[in-house]
Every structure is written in structure tokens, then in C-alpha cells.
Amino acid sequence: MKIIIINGPNLNLLGKREPEIYGNEDFENYFEKLKVKSPLIELSYYQSNIEGEIINKLQEVGFDYDGIILNAGAYTHTSIGIGDCIKAITTPVVEVHISNTFSRETFRHQSYISPNANGIIIGFGLKSYELAIQSFVN
């Protein structure tokens, strides 16, 4: 099984950025733990702060991977292009957010990804990624 995690803008700053919201662990360290917990899954990771690069990666993997875990960060609330891309690909997508976006600013309540995602996991910290992996396995 091949699953990719795609993270959007500013998620490269996990562990440094607003630790009261996002925690103290950087994603690369957490990703290594995820790989250990999921030894039967070919797990890969991609991060970009650039919307078009995220779309390019979705198109690249969107027809032959078994699953995509997408945390598009702020693009969740602004990118019709990413939403349209998810609609166009065949690989199932699970939308993930570390924080509970509904307990934050009102603009974070809108998602252009959710209507085309297979599911949404919100507010469980970094464990949200592990729950998303489980959704593909079970």
C-alpha cells in the first residue's frame, strides 16, 4: 500500500510555529515515528508552501497511490484549484488538520477540500495523521 502525506504552507515550521496550537514536535521527527508504526505501508511525505507545487504533486500521485493525506494548511480555506484537483484525481484523499479549525477564526470554517475528500480528521494534533493512515488500512 502506498500512501503520501502532503502538507501545505507553514507546516514546515511545526515545532516552532505557535506551539500552543500545533505542538512542539517537528514533522520530520513525527514522520519517522509514523513510518515505524506503519511498516507495511510505503509512506512518503511532501511539503510545499506553494499552491501550484501542491497541485502538481496531487496530479503526479493522484492516479496510482492508494491514499493521499492532505493538510493544505491555509490553502484549505482559499484554494479552489486544490479543491478542483482533488475532484479530478482518482486516489482517495483524507483531509487532515492538526487543530480544530472550527474553534478558531471564522474564515477557517470554510474548506474547498472537504466537498471532494473521502473524509476529514480535525483537531487531534499530529495524531490526526495516524488516524488518517488507519482510515486507509481498516
Q: Number of DSSP helices?
A: 5
What amount of the residues lies in strands?
Answer: 15-25%
Ends distance:
12 Å
The SSE order reads: EHHEHEHEEH
Describe the structure.
It is a single chain. By secondary structure, the chain is α/β, with parallel strands linked by helices. Helices cover 33% and strands 19% of the residues. It has five helices and five strands, in the order βααβαβαββα. It has a five-stranded parallel sheet with strand order 2-1-3-4-5, with helices on both faces. α4 links the parallel β3 and β4. α3 runs parallel beside α4. The longest helix is centred in the first third of the chain and has 11 residues. It is globular. It starts with a strand and ends with a helix. The mean pLDDT is 92.
Offer a quick outline of the entry.
The chain is α/β, with parallel strands linked by helices and 138 residues long. 33% of the residues lie in helices and 19% in strands. It is globular.
